[in-house]
Design a protein that fits this description.
Blueprint: H1 5-24, H2 27-41, H3 52-76, H4 96-104, H5 108-114, H6 119-129, H7 135-142, H8 146-163, E1 167-168, H9 173-188, H10 192-198, E2 199-208, E3 220-221, H11 223-237, E4 242-248, E5 251-258, E6 261-271, E7 277-283
Parallel strand pairs: 2-7
Antiparallel strand pairs: 1-6, 2-3, 4-5, 5-6, 6-7
Domain RNA polymerase sigma-70 region: 9-73
Pfam families: Sigma70_r2, Sigma70_r4_2
Domain RNA polymerase sigma factor 70 region 4 type: 110-160
Length: 294
């Protein structure tokens, strides 16, 4: 039976995007890597490719590794904190990107933690945990030894466990929805006491403005400082913005918009040991909000 390029694209694009997004933390870069991979595929005789999924995963992974290694300098020069681009679920869209969000719930907290890994560690971790590949297959994809891939995975786990101690990075929609609703209510009523009760004592708020709009350059640490920031910015927002609770990377977050345009996307990570918010990630960089729809 003849294999059609259109069928291959339709079948594998969502999976390839999921892989690239986990690798890069960028919607635009992930889409570019996937498109370049399929463009290169058109130059090949696909009838000769016997394991299409593995072939595409290898191609996308290596493109992502090249991107990560070349982007290191850019991220080191980035103004303020660099955060991954969040994915907001648009359930009415037929875009494969949206299918990835709904079906796989790529935890935003985990994406942030993945930034602690080297490119090779990240590739092994993603291929192993997200796609379920055996070490032998990963070794073939990355042109490394099986033992080397096992060591990379072990190092990745150690780094993630250390960086994410106490964080509930897996999606818990019902729990996060309740806490986000309470957070929005407390913010909109400038209720500092309620905000303190919602946050862990060592809560951290990180904003990403990329030097393109006003944002905190450094993380804001401790519940009291986070509360002071939130109540301060709300006084500037309250008459000019609207808030939508949305599914962001499979968890409940919210989008703040002004004049019909999204201006901030806020995601939360919960504490695994208490019913409080441990991290708030606020995306303000307009370049990273281009793909959002209200």
């Amino acid at each position: 039976m003849t294999i059609r390029m259109e069928d291959v694209y339709r079948q594998y694009k969502p999976l390839m995007f999921s892989l690239a997004y986990r690798m890069l933390g960028s919607v635009t870069e992930a889409e570019d890597s996937v498109q370049e991979t399929f463009l290169a595929l058109t130059q090949s005789d696909i009838e000769d490719i016997h394991h299409m999924k593995s072939y595409l995963c290898k191609a996308v992974t290596n493109r992502c590794l090249d991107t990560l290694k070349s982007a290191r300098w850019k991220r080191e020069q980035y103004v303020g904190e660099w955060l991954p681009e969040p994915l907001v679920d648009d359930s009415v869209s037929g875009d494969p990107l949206q299918a990835v969000i709904r079906e796989e719930s790529i935890s935003y907290g985990l994406l942030v933690l993945l930034e602690n890994l080297s490119p090779d560690e990240r590739a092994v971790y993603v291929l192993r945990t997200a796609l379920g590949y055996e070490y032998s297959a990963i070794a073939e994809m990355l042109n490394k030894s099986e033992a080397g891939c096992r060591k990379l995975y072990s190092r990745a786990q150690q780094k993630l466990n250390g960086a994410g101690d106490g964080l509930q990075v897996e999606a818990q929609p019902e729990r996060s929805k309740r806490l986000v609703e309470q957070l929005i209510y407390a913010m909109s009523h400038a209720d500092a006491h309620a905000l303190v009760r919602l946050l862990s004592q060592d809560a951290v708020l990180i904003t990403d403005g990329g030097g393109k709009t006003r944002a905190a350059i450094h993380p804001i640490r401790s519940d009291q400082r986070v509360v002071a920031f939130l109540t301060g910015v709300w006084r500037k927002w309250e008459n000019n913005v609207s808030i939508q609770i949305r599914s962001i990377n499979g968890q409940t977050g919210f989008v703040i918009s002004g004049e019909g345009q999204p201006t901030r996307v806020i995601n939360v990570v919960l504490n695994s040991r208490e019913d409080r918010i441990e991290r708030l990630y606020m995306m303000i960089n307009p370049e990273k909000l281009k793909h959002f729809s209200l």
